[in-house]
């Protein structure tokens, strides 16, 4: 495990050095992220001009949920999507062969081998929103509550990685079959309280445990959800990670090199 951590630190450092060489890109990413965040906040506040609650969440709680969702989405765009967004093409043209020859788990290299550190600006801005909204409540969260939120954020990150890997493995059995668009559409539901979704959508979100992406972390932080969700989130994350590794390894055994 420590070897993989050191390897990841090296790979991330290489990605960071490549991206900071283009300072204009960094400035553009910050502006783009700010505009997107302001737009999301504006749309959310517009909804609250017509209601006092959204799925049981007040305006402050809903903004905290949005900030948490922005945080997890930023981590997804920075750490996972740069690797798996075009992963199917690597399998199709044989570039995946090079991954299998490396002295590290293929799922690690394929899903975390590269990064887009500039996208962490979205995660940072989401964290700022969470800190401001949670701190402005009449009763700010205590250390135990903050710790629970942090555990759920880590769990949400693991769930995000695991589900994204599971989606990517479909290419091992059906080359050219792409579920990225469906995954992205389902992902967007994480920015809203799951309690506001109608039953068919709630059933659909069992595929991607949307409640653990932002609703549960934000709900625990603001006291709207039971602390028991912390243990549930950790359990779902552990199960998801194990399932992703198992399915990935089976997919690799099913893989036939495009260059052979």
Please describe what this structure looks like.
This protein is mostly helical and 260 residues long. Helix 2 crosses helix 7 and helix 3 runs parallel beside helix 8. The two termini are 32 Å apart. The mean pLDDT is 86.
Q: Short description, anyone?
A:
The protein has about 260 residues and is mostly helical.
Characteristic key phrases:
260 residues, 71% helix, 0% strand, single chain, mainly alpha
Oligomeric state, counting identical vs distinct chains: single chain
Structural class category: mainly alpha
Distance between the termini: 32 Å
**Helix and strand succession?**
HHHHHHHHHHHHH
Helix coverage percent: over 70%
- Provide a count of the helices: 13
- How many whole angstroms does the radius of gyration measure? 19 Å
Give start-end ranges of low-pLDDT stretches. Answer: none
Silhouette: globular
Integer average pLDDT:
86
Count of DSSP E strands?
0
Largest sheet: none
How much strand?
Answer: under 5%
